[in-house]
Amino acid sequence: LDTLPQRIIGGQEVVPYSVKYQASLQVDRKHYCGGTLIQPQWVLTAAHCWRPASVIQVVLSEHNLAVEEGFEQVLDVSRVYSHFAYNPKTFNNDILLIKLSVPAQINAYVQPATLPTIDTPELIGGTSCTVSGWGVTRIYSFYLSPILRAVDVSIMSYCQYYYYYRVNDNMICAGSRFGGKDACQGDSGGPLICDGTLEGIVSWGIGCALPYYPGVYTKVRNYSRWIDWIISSDS
């Protein structure tokens, strides 16, 4: 058995172009964070993925970062909106909206994710979710996977128990209690999808895929009004 957890740690390559909302945030054509298309002209990511709008490009319909496959949409950015109360020390409110300079072309390979609404049922412990990205594929590796990968993780209740009260109600935890499945560097800002809904943004965690240290995600449903407010005030 391979004891080194595979990556997006513990995951597998996705069917090309099947994760239609996945975005790659790039500077100088190098991937540095993930993101999620939520409207044709808007991408949601983590506040700790902030860069000046003028240097970011968002790539949609991307599968292999190392190969130009012909389906990519490479879009410039006109504005970035980091949450006004983002705290880089605690990662509270780790959420950021990116406005694309032009709307993405919605097609067979590019579709926005579904956001939670007031009526979306509360997430309960044990719910199975999927996280995707181009992060490192082996623990202690610094190389990104060129191929988009995904892994199934479970929502974990009682997260304060793992992180000594560094987790608050704006965060959710997901992973596997025995380790070996996690999001990792390079997957920051990427999507956590539960029951077809964008519930989390990859935010932080201790190490990668360590037992008892689940990944911590920004709880998207707490920011529905903020998202609506930013988008409506910028239209």
UniProtKB/TrEMBL annotation:
Domain (Peptidase S1): residue spans on this chain: 8-232
For the protein in the UniProt heading, the enzyme class is hydrolase
This protein's GO cellular component annotations are: extracellular space
Q: Return the Pfam families for the record.
A: Trypsin
- Gene Ontology biological process terms in this record: proteolysis
Asked if the keyword Disulfide bond belongs to this entry, the reply reads yes
| Keywords attached to this entry | Disulfide bond, Hydrolase, Protease, Serine protease
Quote the EC number: 3.4.21.4
Q: Which reaction does it catalyse?
A: Preferential cleavage: Arg-|-Xaa, Lys-|-Xaa
Chief location of this protein?
Answer: secreted
Report the domain of life of the source organism: Eukaryota
Alphabetically, the GO molecular function entries are: serine-type endopeptidase activity
Concerning SUPFAM superfamilies, the annotation shows: Trypsin-like serine proteases
Where in the cell does this protein reside? Secreted, Extracellular space
Record protein name field: trypsin
User: Which species expresses this protein natively?
Assistant: Cyprinus carpio carpio
